[in-house]
Design a protein that fits this description.
The protein is α/β, with parallel strands linked by helices. It is built from 17 helices and nine strands. The model has no long low-confidence stretch (mean pLDDT 94).
Length: 334
């Protein structure tokens, strides 16, 4: 091993840079220093932080190219402007320590606990699981809903184009968030009717999404949990980025609800990254540390679904990040 190798590994393992970026976003520095910039003492006084410590933080951010020295003090670079709130790329949510994405990332501090036990690290870090945290803190729920919308935005056209959704006269989007994907499906397939199920206030956001996309006349919204009975008799039950958030016991509960509700000739459709196929290893660890879940492989989906009398018909690669697994009821073959 060369000195270069040692240095590279040390750089990969270092926490100073990822935490500096997170603290910068949490303090709103990229927005505050946009334009002409400002003096360290002035910004420190505004934020009620140590001027000396802030100067150290900005010095490191300058080496990263996020800020640069200016006549006024420090200013945000064009590169650093990607961290501004209005950049529209989801980075603020991902990094801000008091938003759902940035807070969840801190569960990695307790990754050893997850590797040792196979359980989520989030409760060890924050005293309750991720979902209980969202229920307790409405601003986290709001930022999580936005994070899910941002994460799917670029993927939705590929998901819609990659499957013949017109095969299903009625689609129930189980845990469908603010309705971004279902709205796109309904817009592309005028003969399809949709029904979204999610908790309030997320469900209220879905209603607004359907209105904005002019598909509200074909879209129903039910405020509820996917652990409870689902609307009955639809042709397809869609689970997009749902099962990987849960361990096997809860995943069985969710699939069980879909199976008891789906029409005899209907389908259960799972859209999410698949291990060994469309799942990044880093994201695999995130699912474990935050939720106690994982990116399951195809054989694991087989095993999970077979308990409920589901047969995997086909796996389709929809994008570079997600696959669609189409399940039918084995009983329908009789």
């Amino acid at each position: 091993m060369t000195d270069h190798d040692v240095s590279a590994i040390r750089t990969l393992a270092g926490l100073a840079t990822p935490m500096a970026l997170r603290v910068a976003v949490t303090l709103g520095l990229p927005d505050r220093l946009h334009g002409d910039g400002a003096a360290v003492a002035q910004v420190a006084a505004e934020l009620d932080v140590s001027a000396q410590a802030l100067d150290l933080l900005l010095g490191h951010l300058a080496t990263l190219g996020i800020v640069e020295r200016a006549p006024a003090g420090y200013r945000t670079t064009g590169y650093g402007a990607a961290l501004c709130v209005d950049a529209g790329n989801g980075l603020t949510n991902f990094l801000h320590l008091d938003m759902a994405g940035g807070r969840a990332e801190m569960a990695f501090v307790e990754l050893l606990h997850s590797i040792t036990t196979g359980a989520a690290a989030y409760p060890r870090r924050f005293g309750q699981d991720f979902w209980a945290d969202l229920r307790r803190h409405p601003h986290l729920r709001e930022s999580f809903d936005q994070q899910m919308t941002d994460r799917l935005r670029e993927q939705v056209p590929q998901i819609v184009a990659g499957h013949d959704w017109g095969r299903y006269p009625t689609v129930v989007d189980v845990g469908g968030g603010r309705g971004t994907l279902l709205a796109a499906i309904l817009a592309a397939y005028p003969g399809v009717r949709g029904h979204l199920v999610d908790l309030e206030p997320t469900a209220a956001g879905a209603r607004r999404t359907f209105e904005a996309h002019r598909v509200a006349d074909r879209a129903r919204v039910t405020a509820g949990s996917f652990f409870d009975p689902l609307p009955h008799g639809a042709d397809a039950y869609l689970l997009c980025d749902i099962l990987h958030d849960w361990g096997d016991d809860d995943a069985h509960r969710i699939l069980g609800r879909c199976v008891e509700a789906v029409s005899p000739t209907g389908r259960v459709l799972v859209v999410e990254p698949v291990g060994g196929r469309r799942a990044a290893t880093e994201f695999d660890l995130a699912m474990l540390a935050i939720f106690g879940g994982r990116e399951r492989r195809v054989d694991e989906f087989h095993a999970l679904a077979s308990v409920h009398g589901l047969v995997l018909d086909v796996v389709t690669d929809l994008s570079d990040q997600r696959c669609l697994l189409e399940f039918r009821l084995a009983a329908a073959e009789r």
